[in-house]
């Protein structure tokens, strides 16, 4: 990996911010005036530079003073009021002080050298807890632990006080968090951009076996990890009308006026790199309104109207992904996406204009990655800003757009392909809909020129889908606008070329469509989540260099057969299982045996992920155990079946799957004849911190989506990195994991992706074709063994009148055989331990560092730019 070295000209460049908002040189931006020159500014600059050089020493005495200072002045605590929450907050603020210093150095260095940055636009960033991550990145975990012990507090109890940031839902957000971690660690200039949701999607509680959603008020306590930026605020318009007029060059220009204007205010979240001076940033937008209070309405006694604008603004970024089962929810989500896109593009443009470079150089300094389709409104917004606000011609602007954007597609499921009704866009974003019409028209004209007289091709490839109503296909718009489109696993990238984007390849060429297999951050998912295993690996490698280079884990294979090493490996796994068992008892009030096989499926609850098939197999196992003579039963392998994940609030069938899991658990766990031979656990409110407890404890993890439906998955990588084995279908990243760790170390089953459509369309469900074991399981449910069978009738109907879209009945027999293979393999403990070690040793490919390096070199064209220490 090459290191970026700035040219002498770039190093000498002095950049100057454009004039402030008083001159209206940048429409939509609100900035406080700053002192542009003079003695005061020179003095302040000198003092701040001296301050930057004075990095605090990392010793117990210094850390203790910093914590006490924040307890006294930031939190205004007196000794008797200091508890573990206050101690956590004071510790976090003291760590943040160090991060901010490095953050300032990083941003100043990158701006001074005018390096090209990538801006990673994602509607989700599933960050998890930040204090432990920051301490490990800065090498301060031990000194803070010693300091807190000296103050009478325990590090673990303080870490537990941190709430998980409610900025994401699942894999999309966790991937984004891993990628920003890798950008920082690998010294690549880049920022994340997202929204600051005041409430997460929801906190999940289980009531009578059903998922119940309650508000996730993750900002209930102060959040030390965000830096409010009230001086960085951009105007974002909705509704209104568009007018046009000819300019002095007789070019038609458009102006968007009226409507509703909100303001997006920035919050910055510093993200430290591991073992580097580079601290990058995630900038999150919160919506507000400048005219928050209507005094006239208040004086007239209309108090609700007086606060209406404020409430409308707050609603926009109140909740992650509002329920869009109704029109109001759809409009709110569309507004969320545009607020995010508009504020981000305005901010990027403001930063570019500070360089004083010509517009043609914009793609030389800016790369924008669209993480799925949610940020795609950034395409027409950048075109609008360049044409309507900056006065560029359409072609000049479109060339910049094409050279700036790249797009990651994350799905092949039709229901997940984002579409917006044309009528809704025309109402809420009238100028953008007209731009989308023009983008699509000019694109189709070029396609028609290359492929004349093929009107069906034009229909298939159009960004606007005909129907009632017409819909804008956001994936198509992102594809048309971006210079590169990537899938997230080899099999997924091939599938999208054969399906979603098949008709684009003859026009654009196959080179536009590439693969970038997802990756995970080893800092979070091994070093932090599994500290005992991390220590053992460090001993074997000889230092901690493996944390930034997973290729060094291959040395672990040399220890297979080393009795002492394998004994320690097994002991660490057992300790992690005991930790999870303690958590399950505390949270679920279920006592499980850590000596049993821990079989885990944790992820968003969805029909295609087939938690339904998993629980059907659990019922099959339960039926078998009940039918066995006692003597034989006691020879069976004890198992703990662990589930966790949230169903979307409006997803009725997914919620029934959760209900079935909990109903089965209630019966099985209370059956004294079965005892520890089978336990079923549903852990509520799955999040990053819960995952950090579950993943290191797994013996087996299930990744059993219908072939061709899971784009990649990243939890599969996390489990394998921690020495767990996969039971899975030939889908997503499972395919590449198998290639890396070997077929003997993964348990594959089920139909292949290219067989799915044939099964769906030529072998539709027929009752007589059901496997006998599945018939028996369905009969058990319908007998009332797990409660009122009427409750589960709609779920069972998905295998009947629903057509079994996700092929549960087709794959069930091979799934049962694969489970038997897992059981046989686990009984051979020496071979199982060897398999576990090989899994960890061979997972280097799935580091997010590798993925980011590929993006940087092959898509973004950015260079590493390590920030030198000023100390």
Automatic annotation (TrEMBL):
Keyword tags: Allosteric enzyme, Carbohydrate metabolism, Glycosyltransferase, Pyridoxal phosphate, Transferase
Lineage top rank: taxon: Eukaryota
Alphabetized InterPro entries for the sequence: Glycg_phsphrylas, Glyco_trans_35, Pyridoxal_P_attach_site
EC category: transferase
EC identifiers of the protein: 2.4.1.1
One GO BP annotation of this record: glycogen catabolic process
PROSITE patterns in the cross-refs: PHOSPHORYLASE
Cofactor entry: pyridoxal 5'-phosphate
Catalytic activity: [(1->4)-alpha-D-glucosyl](n) + phosphate = [(1->4)-alpha-D-glucosyl](n-1) + alpha-D-glucose 1-phosphate
GO cellular component terms, semicolon-separated: cytoplasm
SUPFAM superfamilies reported in the protein's UniProt record: UDP-Glycosyltransferase/glycogen phosphorylase
Residue numbers of N6-(pyridoxal phosphate)lysine PTMs: 718
Pfam family membership, one: Phosphorylase
An annotated Gene Ontology molecular function: glycogen phosphorylase activity
NCBIfam families: P_ylase
Cited function: Allosteric enzyme that catalyzes the rate-limiting step in glycogen catabolism, the phosphorolytic cleavage of glycogen to produce glucose-1-phosphate, and plays a central role in maintaining cellular and organismal glucose homeostasis.
Protein name listed in UniProt: Alpha-1,4 glucan phosphorylase
Organism field: Tieghemiomyces parasiticus
Lineage, highest ranks first: Eukaryota, Fungi, Fungi incertae sedis, Zoopagomycota, Kickxellomycotina
């Amino acid at each position: 990996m090459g290191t970026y070295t700035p040219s002498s000209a770039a190093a000498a460049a002095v950049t100057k911010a454009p004039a402030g908002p008083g001159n209206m040189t940048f429409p939509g931006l609100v900035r406080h005036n700053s002192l542009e020159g003079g003695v005061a500014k020179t003095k302040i600059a000198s003092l701040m530079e001296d301050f930057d050089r004075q990095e605090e020493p990392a010793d117990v005495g210094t850390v203790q003073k910093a914590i006490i200072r924040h307890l006294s002045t930031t939190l205004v605590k007196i000794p008797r009021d200091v508890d573990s929450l206050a101690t956590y907050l004071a510790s976090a603020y003291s760590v943040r002080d160090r991060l901010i210093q490095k953050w300032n150095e990083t941003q100043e260095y990158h701006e001074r050298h005018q390096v090209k940055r990538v801006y990673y636009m994602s509607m989700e960033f599933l960050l998890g807890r930040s204090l432990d991550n920051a301490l490990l990145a800065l090498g301060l975990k031990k000194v803070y632990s010693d300091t807190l012990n000296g103050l009478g507090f325990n590090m673990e109890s303080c870490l537990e006080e941190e709430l998980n940031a409610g900025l994401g839902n699942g894999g999309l957000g966790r991937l984004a968090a891993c990628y920003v971690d890798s950008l920082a660690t690998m010294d690549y200039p880049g920022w994340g951009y997202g929204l600051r949701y005041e409430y997460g999607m929801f906190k999940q509680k289980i009531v009578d076996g059903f998922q119940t959603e309650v508000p996730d008020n993750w900002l209930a306590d102060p959040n030390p990890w965000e830096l409010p930026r009230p001086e960085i605020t951009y105007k974002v318009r909705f509704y209104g009308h568009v007018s046009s007029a000819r300019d002095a060059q007789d070019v038609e220009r458009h102006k968007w006026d009226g409507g509703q204007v909100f303001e997006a205010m920035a919050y910055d979240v510093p993200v430290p790199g591991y073992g580097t001076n580079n601290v990058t940033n995630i900038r999150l937008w919160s919506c507000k309104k400048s005219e928050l209070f209507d005094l006239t309405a208040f004086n007239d006694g209309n108090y609700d109207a007086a606060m209406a604008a404020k409430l409308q603004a707050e609603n926009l970024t109140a909740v992650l992904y509002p329920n869009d089962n109704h029109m109001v929810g759809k409009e709110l989500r569309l507004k969320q996406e545009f607020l995010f896109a508009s504020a981000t593009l305005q901010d990027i443009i403001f930063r570019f204009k500070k360089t004083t470079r010509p517009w043609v150089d914009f793609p030389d300094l800016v790369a924008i990655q669209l993480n799925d389709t949610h940020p795609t409104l950034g395409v027409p917004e950048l075109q609008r800003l360049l044409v309507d606000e900056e006065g560029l011609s359409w072609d000049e602007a479109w060339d910049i757009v094409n050279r700036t954007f790249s797009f990651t597609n994350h799905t092949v499921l039709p229901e997940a392909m984002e579409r917006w009704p044309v009528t809704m866009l025309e109402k809420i974003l009238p100028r953008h809909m007209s731009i989308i019409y023009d983008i699509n028209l000019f694109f189709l004209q070029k396609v028609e020129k290359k492929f004349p007289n093929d009107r069906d091709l034009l229909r298939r490839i159009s960004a606007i889908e005909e129907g009632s109503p017409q819909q804008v296909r956001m994936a198509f718009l992102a594809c048309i606008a971006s210079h590169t489109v990537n899938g997230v696993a080899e099999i997924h990238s091939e599938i999208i070329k054969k399906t979603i984007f098949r008709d684009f390849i003859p026009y654009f060429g196959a080179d536009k469509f590439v693969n970038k297999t997802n990756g995970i951050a080893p800092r979070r998912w091994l070093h932090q989540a599994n500290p005992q295993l991390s220590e053992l690996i460090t001993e074997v490698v000889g230092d901690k260099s493996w944390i930034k280079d997973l290729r060094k884990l291959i040395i672990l294979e040399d220890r297979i057969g080393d009795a002492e090493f394998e004994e320690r490996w097994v002991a660490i796994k057992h300790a992690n299982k005991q930790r999870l068992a303690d958590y399950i008892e505390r949270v679920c009030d279920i006592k499980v045996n850590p000596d049993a096989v821990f079989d885990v499926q944790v992820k968003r609850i969805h029909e295609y992920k087939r938690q339904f098939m998993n629980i059907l197999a659990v019922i099959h196992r339960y039926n078998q155990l009940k039918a066995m003579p006692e003597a034989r039963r006691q020879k069976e392998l004890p198992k703990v079946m662990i589930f966790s994940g949230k169903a979307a609030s409006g997803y009725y069938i997914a919620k029934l799957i959760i209900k079935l899991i909990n109903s089965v658990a209630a019966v099985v766990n209370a059956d004294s004849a079965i005892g520890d031979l089978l336990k079923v656990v549903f852990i509520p409110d799955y999040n990053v911190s819960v995952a950090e407890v579950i993943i290191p404890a797994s013996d087996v993890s299930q990744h059993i989506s219908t072939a061709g439906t899971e784009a990649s998955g990243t939890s599969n990588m996390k489990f394998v990195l921690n020495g767990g084995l996969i039971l899975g279908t030939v889908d997503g990243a499972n395919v590449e994991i198998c290639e890396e760790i070997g077929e003997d170390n993964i348990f594959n089953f089920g139909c292949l992706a290219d067989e799915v459509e044939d099964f769906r369309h030529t072998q539709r469900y027929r009752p007589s074709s059901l496997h006998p074991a599945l018939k028996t399981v369905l009969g058990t449910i319908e007998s009332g063994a797990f409660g009122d069978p009427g409750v589960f009738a709609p779920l069972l109907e998905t295998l009947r009148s629903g057509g079994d879209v996700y092929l549960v009945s087709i794959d069930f027999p091979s799934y049962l055989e694969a489970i038997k293979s897992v059981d046989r393999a686990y009984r051979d403990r020496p071979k199982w331990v060897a398999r576990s070690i090989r899994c960890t040793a061979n997972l280097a490919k799935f580091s997010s560092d590798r993925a980011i390096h590929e993006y940087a070199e092959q898509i973004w064209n950015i260079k590493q730019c390590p920030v030198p220490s000023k100390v």
